[in-house]
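From: lab user (bench 3)
To: helpdesk
Subject: output format question, protein + NAP

Hello, I'm new to running complex predictions and I'm not sure whether the block I got back is the full result or only part of it. Here's what I submitted:
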Amino acid sequence: MERIKMTTPLVEMDGDEMTRILWKMIKDELLLPFIDLKTEYYDLGLKYRDETGDQVTIDSALAAKKYGVAVKCATITPNAARVEEYNLKEMYKSPNGTIRAILDGTVFRAPIVVKGIDPTVRTWKKPITIARHAYGDVYKASEMKIPSPGKAEIVFTAEDGSEMRELIHDFDGPGIVQGMHNLFSSIESFARSCFNYALETGQDLWFSSKDTISKKYDHSFKDIFQDIFDREYKDKFDQAGIEYFYTLIDDAVARVIRSEGGYIWACKNYDGDVMSDMVATAFGSLAMMTSVLVAPDGTTEYEAAHGTVQRHYYKHLNGEETSTNSVATIFAWTGALRKRGRLDGIDALADFADKLEKATIDTIEGGTMTKDLALITTLEKVNAVNSQDFIKAIRTNLEAIL
Ligand code: NAP
Ligand code: MG
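Helpdesk reply: Thanks, we reran it on our side. This is the complete output you should expect:
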C-alpha cells in the first residue's frame, strides 16, 4: 500500500514517562506504516527541557504558531520531587502554561463516547465539550483576612494619580475579602476561540455566567461575547445552521443534565475547572477525553487530557506489564492529522484520521480494552489487554477498514 503523503509538517511535541512509551508505539504501529509522516520534532521530555533551559518548549510553541497545527504528548510539570529525580537546574514552569501563554488559547475538552462505557446521566447521547477560559478570576486573585472592625474598599489608581473607590464592606468584626480581575483582551480571545471552535465542529455554543448577581464583572463577559458574536459571527453561525446562546450558570447546569449532549459549553475559569471534572467523570474516564487548545489566530494544539501516568511507567521500568489506555493520545494524533489534512486539502489524511478513530472505537466496542475500561464497562465479554496488545488490536481493525 502506498503511504499517504503530507505537504506541511505537523509540530510534534514529545513528552514524558508512560505516555512517551505510548507515543512511540502509536507512531510505529498506527501511523508510520500508513503515512509518510512529516513532522517538525520537539523533544519536550523533561531531560531535554532541562538541557535547553526550557527553550525547547518556547521553540515548539513558536513552531506551532508558524505551521498552525501541533500534537503534544503529556509532559511532567516539575515539582520539588522531580527536581531531585531528574537533577534539574531549576523548577521549570508547566509546559502547557508556557505554550498557552504564547498561543493565548482556550482549552476544549470532550469525552470520547463508546458503546459499553455508559454515561452516568441517562439522557446524554452525544459528547459535551467544555470550553474553559484559562486566565484570571480566582486563579489570579489577592486575598486578605480582616482581623478587626474597619472598612474594606477596592481602590483603582490611574496613571495620572486619580482614584476610583468602591466599598466592599464595613466590617464590625473579623472576616475575609478577595480581589480578582480579568482583561478585556483575554475575554475577547476566549470568545473568538469558542466561536471558531463551534463553527469548526458544527456544534451549538452555550455560554453561562452569573451576570444577574455580578452586574459589572460577569456582565462584561456576557456583553463581550454578545458584541463579538453580533459583529463577527452571526452570519457564519446562520450559514452553518448552529446557534449561540447565553444563559445563567444555574439554568445551564439544569439544561446540561436534561440534554442529549452535542454542544459546546463555554465556562469562566472556575466554572470550567469544576464542570469539566464533573462532565469527564460522568462520561467514564480521563483517558477517554480529547483536549485541544485553540488560539484566536486559529493555531491548534492537540493533546491528551491526562498526565504521564507515572505509576504505570515505574511498573514498565521494572519490567512489569502495563495496561495503559492510549485512546486519548491516539485521538490527539487523529485530531492533528485531520486538521492538517483539511488545511492542506489532503482528503486522504483526514480520511485516515476518521478510520483510525473508528478502528479504535471498534476495538473497545468489540470487547478488547485496557484495564481502566474493563473495570467499568457494561459489555459482557471483555478481553482486558496490555498497553502494546491494545494498540496491536487497533492495528488489526485499522487494516481491515483500510
Ligand atoms: P496522571 O498521569 O493523569 O495519572 C493519574 C492516574 O490516573 C494514573 O495513576 C492512573 O490510575 C489513571 N490514568 C491516567 N491516565 C491513564 C491512562 N491513559 N490509562 C490508564 N490509567 C490512566 O496523573 P499523575 O500521575 O498525577 O501525574 C503524572 C505526571 O503527569 C505529573 O508529573 C504531572 O505533572 C503530569 N501531568 C501532565 C499533564 C499534561 O501534560 N497534559 C496533565 C496532568 C498531569 P491507576 O494508577 O489507578 O491505574
Ligand atoms: Mg481542576
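A quick orientation on your result: The longest strand covers residues 163-171. Let us know if anything else is unclear.
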